[in-house]
């Protein structure tokens, strides 16, 4: 083989001989576009020089990184054979892929490719700027992971890296009308993960003093051990400020432990396979949409474990539409590709299995009350006073369920109580005691609730106020004021606790001001935004 013919051969793989063996004809496969060509080695040059090597035809079958490397190899082959470069590799969008490539790396790769041969055009600053601009445009597009501040996860990651490299500065973004002291929530995004609990404490202390110590009721912390340690340091430095974990995140962690129980895990995995099959195949999904009148199955999230049980609820809600699909004339194995027919058979078997549906109902019983409490705690509005009573209701509900064995009940209760012991706060106890909804529950007989309430009272009360406060608390317990009227009792269960206190408890002036502040608090780090359950510290004002 001549040197002229050997140049393009190294970019091909020999598949098999073609025609007469003595003629040298073979079937060649291009290394970059996977396209076959027949003939002798001397004809392979035309594959590159006449533009027949189309790597773009593989888009969707390989990831962007592999596609980029093939584009670069194709351009190098064209340059080596003396052809004109198209620059397709440089125009490839690098910023919107599951296998995302960093902007700086992309610029470096393109520069190396363009200068790999003497025939290639040298990379200019304009080329790099074009790539960077394309990535910046991609970052400006809102994505599913947007935080409560309107920042995408991509930009949030950049901000965190900047803080880590900066001179230990604090990024804290106060929420709304802080100068007027009317906001209940102020968020502090700490950005010094290497500093540990002491570093977080320094940032929190700065923000608390900037807001005003007397205006802060507590801090809602992430559940990481570093944040828990920082919370204890805050309590030691500011005697009237209490730390508590994010309630929504704590409930999510309970559901994660539920999912690790053997019989629960089996049902969740089968349900996930059913959802994946019906939502990932177009013709199957269309058939379900017709039978369900537009309702769809909920997909589970990768790190939000509560979504597994929300997915289970959606499967149960679409029980009849799913079963109706099997009576449709279009339900046959040809509705999917031949390589996916084993998935078709598995989904059919699962949906027709009555034991599976019995398991779905049983698993739903484990999470029904927890999901209701999660929705409450992660909602917008005051929820602090409802958490303690809500957790009691969850435990009592599990104990009363007849579908669980004694061992299963003990296992579920142990998971809840272990997390509840780390998640409960004095503020939960004090808020529940002050909530008019629970006033007739005789909470004065509960040692844990009363211990939390009095600890909270003595954290802000002055010694000169102790006598008056004792009289007001006794009045609240005995119900010897106008808040025991029929009208007040009727409004206790329907309205907001803070408004109820303002209207009916004017005879308790010392307790009134602090109770309103406490009852107006939420219980999660970032209500309505599950992406901020972790890594966020919030102040309750």
Automatic annotation (TrEMBL):
Signal peptide boundaries: none
Organism annotation: Chara braunii
All residue ranges annotated as the DUF659 domain in the record: 198-273
Pfam families on file: DUF659 (PF04937)
Protein name: DUF659 domain-containing protein
InterPro entries: DUF659, RNaseH-like_sf
Organism lineage string: Eukaryota, Viridiplantae, Streptophyta, Charophyceae, Charales
Membrane-traversing stretches: none
């Amino acid at each position: 083989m001549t040197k002229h013919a050997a140049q393009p051969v190294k970019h091909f793989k020999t598949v098999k001989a073609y025609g007469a063996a003595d003629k040298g004809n073979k079937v060649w496969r291009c290394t970059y576009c996977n396209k076959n060509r027949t003939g002798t080695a001397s004809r392979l040059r035309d594959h590159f020089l006449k533009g027949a090597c189309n790597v773009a035809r593989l888009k969707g079958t390989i990831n962007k990184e592999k596609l980029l490397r093939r584009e670069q190899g194709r351009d190098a082959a064209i340059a080596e054979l003396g052809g004109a470069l198209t620059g397709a590799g440089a125009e490839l969008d690098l910023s919107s892929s599951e296998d995302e490539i960093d902007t700086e790396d992309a610029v470096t790769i393109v520069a190396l490719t363009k200068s790999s041969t003497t025939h290639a055009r040298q990379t200019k600053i304009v080329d790099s700027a074009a790539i960077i601009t394309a990535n910046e445009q991609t970052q400006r597009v809102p994505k599913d992971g947007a935080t409560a501040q309107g920042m995408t996860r991509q930009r949030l990651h950049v901000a965190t890296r900047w803080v880590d490299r900066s001179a230990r500065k604090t990024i804290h973004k106060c929420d709304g009308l802080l100068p007027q002291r009317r906001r209940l929530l102020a968020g502090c995004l700490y950005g010094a993960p290497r500093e540990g609990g002491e570093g977080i404490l320094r940032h929190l202390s700065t923000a608390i003093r900037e807001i005003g110590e007397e205006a802060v009721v507590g801090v809602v912390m992430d559940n990481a051990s570093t944040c828990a340690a920082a919370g204890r340091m805050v309590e030691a430095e500011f005697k009237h400020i209490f730390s508590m974990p994010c309630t929504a995140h704590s409930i999510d962690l309970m559901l994660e432990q539920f999912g690790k129980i053997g019989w629960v895990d089996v049902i969740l995995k089968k349900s996930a396979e059913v959802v994946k099959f019906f939502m990932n195949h177009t013709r199957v999904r269309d058939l379900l949409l017709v039978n369900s009148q537009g309702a769809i199955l909920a997909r589970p999230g990768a790190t939000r474990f509560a979504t597994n049980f929300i997915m289970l609820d959606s499967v149960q809600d679409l029980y009849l539409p799913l079963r109706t699909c099997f009576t449709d004339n279009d339900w046959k194995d040809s509705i999917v590709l031949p390589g996916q027919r084993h998935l078709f058979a598995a989904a059919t078997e699962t949906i027709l299995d009555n034991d599976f549906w019995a398991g779905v109902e049983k698993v739903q019983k484990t999470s029904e009350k927890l999901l209701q409490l999660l929705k409450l705690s992660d909602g917008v509005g005051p929820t602090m006073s409802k958490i303690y009573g809500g957790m009691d209701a969850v435990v009592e509900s599990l104990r009363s369920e007849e579908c669980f064995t004694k061992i299963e009940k003990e296992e579920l209760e142990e998971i809840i109580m272990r997390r509840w012991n780390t998640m409960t706060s004095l503020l939960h106890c004090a808020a529940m005691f002050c909530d008019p909804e629970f006033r007739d529950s005789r909470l004065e007989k509960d040692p844990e609730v009363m211990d939390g309430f009095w600890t909270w009272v003595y954290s802000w009360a002055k010694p000169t106020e102790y006598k008056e406060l004792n009289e007001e608390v006794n009045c609240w317990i005995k119900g010897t004021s106008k808040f025991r009227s029929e009208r007040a009792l009727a409004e206790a269960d329907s309205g907001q606790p803070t408004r109820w206190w303002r209207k009916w408890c004017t005879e308790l002036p010392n307790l009134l001001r602090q109770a309103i502040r406490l009852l107006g608090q939420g219980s999660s780090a970032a209500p309505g935004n599950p992406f901020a359950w972790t890594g966020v510290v919030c102040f309750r004002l």
